[in-house]
Structure formats: C-alpha cells, structure tokens
Amino acid sequence: MRVAHKIKIALILFSILDLSVACSYFDDDDESSETATMSRLVVIPAELSDNSGIILYDSLIWTINDSGNEPVLYAVDTATGYIVRRVELSDAQNTDWEEIAQDENHIYIGDFGNNDGNRTDLRIYKINKSDLSENVITPEIIHFSYEDQTDFTPAYYDNPYDCESMICTEDTIFLFTKNWTGDYSSSVYKFPAGPGNYQAVHCGKLNTDGQVTASVYSVSDSRLYLLGYKNYLPFISVFEGYIPGESFEGNARQYIFSDKLGLQTEGITLTEDGRIIISAEKGIAAPALYQVILGN
User: Which of 39, 111, 180, 290 is the most exposed place for a label (fewest CB within 10 A)?
Assistant: First the structure.
C-alpha cells in the first residue's frame, strides 16, 4: 500500500528525532523489560520497490509487488538479494496484491488491498508449488466478501475492511484486517482455502495497538506474528498460544522498533530454525530484507 504522504512526514520526523534504542518491548503494563533488534540482511532490486508480503520456500524468499504492478511472483536469493525466478500468473490481475501465504502444497496471493473499503472483487490466487518451475502458470481463484459489510461507500483510509495479512492452516484461510477506523484492533475472518465464492466469517478481534501489514503463523508452537506500524514506527506483535479461529486468551507481546522510524515493513516469515525475516519496500531506504531477533 502506498503511503507517500505519510512517508514525507516520517522523513521530517526522522530528521529531527534522535532515536538510539533499537526497539522497545511491551508486555501489558511492563514497558521496556526486554529489547529486540532489526538488522538488514541484504538489499533487494529496485524491481521489488513495492514488495508486499514474503514467504520462505525451497530456501528462497518468494514475494510480490502491490497495486499497479505486474501479476508476477518473484523468488529472491537470501544471500545475494538477486531475483532468481519470475513466475507470471496468467488470467490474473494485480488490483492490490498485499500478502502471500503458504501451506504444504500451495501458495496463496491475496488481492484484497482495500483502502477505500468499497471493493467487490476481493480474491486470492492459489498456486500449486509443483508448478513453480514454469514461467507462466494459471492459478485457481478464491473469491470472497466480508459477511458483515453492508455499506460500500468509499471511505479512503477510514474503513475497517482493508487487509494486508493472511495465513492458511488446515485448509482454511484466515485474514487479519488493517483497521483504519482508529481503534487499533484487527478483525479476524475465515473461509475455505479452495476455489469458490465465499462469505468471510468474522471470528474475533485482536488488540494490535497499530495497523497490521503482514502475518505469519508457527503451527509447532501456536504462535502468531503480526507485523505492522503505529505513528510511523514498525512493530511485531506476538500472540502466544494462538489457535486460528478461536477466541484469543493467551499472552500478547509487542516489540516496537524505535530506530526504524518511517521504515515501511511489508512482509514477515520464519526460517526453519525460528529466525524472523521481514521485508521493507522502498521508502526512507532501499527495498531490503531484514532479520529480527526478539528478546525472551
């Protein structure tokens, strides 16, 4: 999602603030009890200046660009940052691609960016991983709408139906909305992960204290990671004991990266050994991949 006017403000703030702490960790009312660090791994090509969402598959980072770009899936070498594969989706449109997720056999691309809250063509493209060796592939399409949305009057940056975050588990897609109404919560919706036309069922809210831009879920330890920002500062919220689709009653922690003011973090994924990798689009810095280490 393009927020050029906000980045200009962020650049002004960045020039006048002295930010020396790598990040702050918040657990309920206990502030700054732990720290975390975000360090750049590698710069990625300008062709990925609008990257939005990442997964790690077959030792490569797979990513997409958001609205106004070609319907292409890119594979990036994590050591060099070079693009090593481009896979075009035929019969697909990039209205506003915002997230990429995966399960064992498939990759899902979320065309559900909805800044105005008035889209009636929300969809997810489903790709077989076995097809990734091809240069052009034809995806299956999952169409959906929000079951509780009745008003489609355009409300630019003032609606609860924008979305940039998705996970897929047990043949079900879960969305975490980017709420522009000011209460800094994220609604959770679910629907089947097969091709069809569905109403996304509302199944709860998460207190994110900011706007969510990406997500990843660790099935092995039931841990949900939500990437986002508030007041131009990126954060990662960690929800321990999270079971998708169920009411959350576990512990939540938020790490705020106070030295990365204005950095537009857009994607998050996990390595097999539990490391966190995030992506950032071009803004105050070149597009790049970063590694995050969270305090315990």
Answer: 39
User: Strand 123-128 relative to strand 140-146: parallel, antiparallel, unpaired?
Assistant: antiparallel
CA atoms within 13 A on the CB side of 37: 4
Strands 196-207 vs 140-146: parallel, antiparallel or unpaired: parallel
Cβ contacts of 120-125, under 8 Å, gap ≥ 24? 120/145, 120/152, 121/95, 124/166, 124/173, 125/89, 125/92
* For the chain, counts of helices (H) and of strands (E): 1, 23
Look up residue 75 and give its two tokens. 């594979």
Residue 192: Cβ within 10 Å count: 12
- Tens digits of per-residue pLDDT, 205-241? 999 999 999 999 999 999 999 999 999 999 999 999 9
Task: Compute how many other C-beta atoms are within 10 angstroms of the C-beta atom of residue 37.
Answer: 15
Rg, Å, the chain Cα set: 18
| Burial class, 22, CB count within 10 angstroms (exposed 0-12 / middle 13-18 / buried 19+) | middle
203-228 burial: b if 16+ Cβ within 10 Å, else e: bebbebbbbbbbbbbeeeeebbbbbb
71 Cα distance to chain centroid: 18
Query: Could you please report the per-residue DSSP string of 130-153?
Result: GGTTSSEE--EEEEEEETT-----
Q: What is the pLDDT of residues 177-210, one digit of tens each?
A: 999 999 899 999 999 999 999 999 999 999 999 9
Which residues, 6+ apart, have CB-to-CB distance to 51 below 8 Å?
44, 63, 64, 65, 66, 266, 267, 279, 280, 281, 287
Cα four-point dihedral sign 245, 238, 125, 145: positive
